[in-house]
Amino acid sequence: MSTQPDLLHSEEEEALRAAVRDLLTDHCDPAGVLRRTESDSPHDVKLWKALTEGMGLAGLLVPETLGGQGATHREAAVVLEELGRAVAPVPYLTSAVVATEALLECGHEGTSGALRAELLGELASGASVGVLAVGLHTAPGAPFPTARLENGTLHGELTAVADATAADVLLVPADDGGLYAVTAADAAVTPQISLDLTRPVARIVLDAAPARRLGDAEPAVHRALRAGAGLLASEQLGLADWCLTETVRYLKDRKQFNRPVGGFQALKHRLAALWLEVVNLRAAARNAADALATGSEERDLAVAVAQAYAAGVAVHAAEEAVQLHGGIGMTWEHPAHLYLKRAKADSLAHGTAGAHRERLAAMVDLRPPA
Fold first, then answer.
1. Domains of the chain by range and CATH?
2. How far apart are CA 206 and CA 189, in angstroms?
C-alpha cells in the first residue's frame, strides 16, 4: 500500500530557506544584479562562494562519503526557490543539480569511478563548476547532440549550453555513447546572445580536446535533465511568488484618486487569479521535488506535470508585475524586466510546456485526436 507524500516543509527546510534568503538579501540586491547584466562578468563569483564554501549548498545532492551534504532534492528545491526569487546570477541549477546528477549516474568502479568521485567532491565544495554540455532547451528523454570521439579526443560544436562560460569542467556526450569530462580550458567557449542575462548561454567548440570517460551518456543525461526540469519548477515558483508579492506591495502603496490602486476591484480579481496559479504551482513543484527525492516510480510523471504548468504561471506573473507596476515597471532601473526575461527563458529550458504535455499524454496513453 503506497503512502501519500508529505509536501509540507520541515523545520529544517524552513531554516534553510531563511538562511538562504538572508544571504541573498545581503549579497544579491536587484541593483547589483542589474549592474552585472551590463558587465562582461554576469556571474556573481562572490555570491557563489558564499553559497558553496560558506553554506555548502553545492553539495546537497552529493553523498557525505563523497564530500557532500547527503541531502535530497527537497532541500535543493528550497534553495532554487530562493534563488528564483532573487534571479541570482549563479550556476546552481547547472552545476549543483544537472552536472551533479549526471555524475551520480556514472560508474562507481575503476578509473572512471575515481574520476567521478574526484569531480563530485570538487563540485560539492564549490572548488569547480561543472556543466553538462547539452543545450538548455533539451527536454528529458529528447535526442541530444554529441561530439565526435577520435583517438581519445573530442571534436565538434555544441550550442546554447547554459553557464558554460563559468564552467571549469564540461561533461560532454560523445558519439560512441559515452559521457566524457573535458577541462573547460581545453575547449573554445564563446558567449551567445541570451534573453536572460542572468543565465547566459554559450557555444562550445571542441578541437581535439583531451577527454576522460565517465560512463554511459544516455542514462546520465536523462537523469540530469529530469532533475533539472523537476527542480526548475521550484525556481519558477520563487520567481512567480516574488512577482506576485512585489506587485501586491506596490499596489497597496500606489495611490490614484486618493485611494490605493490595489483597492480597485478589477485589479483585485487579476491578483486573486494569479495567486491561485502560484498556489497550484507550489503544489506541482513540491510534488516533483518530493518524487525526485524519494525515487518515486512516478517521478517522470511528476516532473512532466510540474513543467507542463510552471512556465505559463511564471511568465504570467512576470507580465503582470511589469504591467501593474505602471511606468516604473517598464524602465531598465526596475528589476521587473529581469524576472520577465528569466521567466521567458525558463519557459524554454529543459523542454517547453508543450513538449512536457506531449510526454505526459504518452505516459497516460492519451492519444491525440485522429
1. 11-125 (1.10.540.10), 130-215 (2.40.110.10), 220-363 (1.20.140.10)
2. 9
Closest of 73, 65, 66, 64 to residue 96, by C-alpha: 73
Let me know the angle formed at the C-alpha of 36 by 33 and 37, rounded to the nearest 5 degrees.
90
C-alpha cell at 342: 528569466
Q: Give the separation between CA 57 and CA 81, rounded to whole angstroms.
A: 13
Q: How far apart are CA 311 and CA 305, in angstroms?
A: 11
Calculate the alpha carbon distances from 72 to 64, 220, 228, 293 in Å: 12, 18, 14, 5
Rounded CA gap, 28 and 257, in Å? Answer: 36
Check: pTM over 0.70? Answer yes or no.
yes
pLDDT digits (tens, 9 = 90+) for 238-268: 999 999 999 999 888 876 766 777 667 788 8
- Rounded CA-CA distance 154/238 in Å is 38
Buried b (16+ CB within 10 A) or exposed e, 202-239: bbbebeebebebbbbbeebbbbbbbbbbbbbbbbbbbb
| Burial (0-12, 13-18, 19+ Cβ within 10 Å), 88 | buried
Does the pLDDT of residue 204 top 50, yes or no?
yes
Instruction: Supply φ then ψ for residue 95, to 5 degrees.
Output: -95, -55
How far apart CA 295 and CA 204 sit, in angstroms, is 33
* Nearest to 346, CA basis, from 323, 296, 312: 312
DSSP 8-class letter at 147 = B
Q: Which three cell numbers stand for residue 192?
A: 551567445
Q: Which helix (H) or strand (E) holds 319?
A: helix 299-324
Q: Which helix (H) or strand (E) holds 340?
A: helix 336-346
Grid coordinates in use for 99? 552536472
